[in-house]
Amino acid sequence: MIRDDIKNQIEDIMKKYPCIDSAIVPSLQLLQEQNGSITEDDMEDLSLLLKFPQARIYSAASFYSMLSLRPRGKYHIQICANVSCTLLERETLFDYISRKLDIKDGESTREGLFSIESVECLGSCGYAPAMMINADHYEDVDFKKADEIIEAIRERERIK
């Protein structure tokens, strides 16, 4: 069940757009912020609120890599798996970070701090390899830079 304060925010989002279709993704983002992921109940409730079939809500929720149907870590790492980002080292950036955190694609670390996902393209082919952590975009990421970023997050979270 969508909380009343979230419903009010979704209704405000709906008023912003002349076409209600445009409210689908921002509404899903809001629900994900509330729950950490988008649940079946969320999609059902949102379909009733926006007056769209649930399949339409699901298609948006499952299409965009910034949205997730399963819980993610507090810091969700997306690593580009496109050709430009995988040719620069013998071991890919994804494999390196996956091994370092001891998690596989779609998994989260035990304490829930990090999750990892391989994505097709982050639009940084000229500055490969690229990754995103939540909304922060990183380019020219070598293993040393990846280590520094991860350690800075751990330090910030006081987890070592």
Question: How would you characterize the overall build of this protein?
Answer:
The chain has 160 residues and is of the alpha+beta class. The chain is built from seven helices and four strands; from the N terminus they run ααααβααβββα. It has helices at residues 4-16, 24-35, 40-50, 54-63, 83-86, 93-101, 143-157, and strands at residues 75-80, 114-119, 131-133, 136-138. It has a four-stranded mixed β-sheet, with helices on one face. Strand 3 (131-133) and strand 4 form a beta hairpin. The mean pLDDT is 92.
Note the main attributes of this structure.
alpha+beta; 160 residues; four-stranded mixed sheet; 11% strand
In this structure, how is the largest beta sheet organized? 4 strands, mixed
Could you give the order of strands across the largest sheet?
Answer: 2-1-3-4
Work out the helix count.
Answer: 7
Helix content: 40-55%
Structural class: alpha+beta
Kindly provide the radius of gyration, computed on alpha-carbon positions and rounded to a whole number of angstroms.
18 Å
SSE series: HHHHEHHEEEH
Distance between the termini: 37 Å
Q: Average pLDDT across residues?
A: 92
How many strand segments? 4
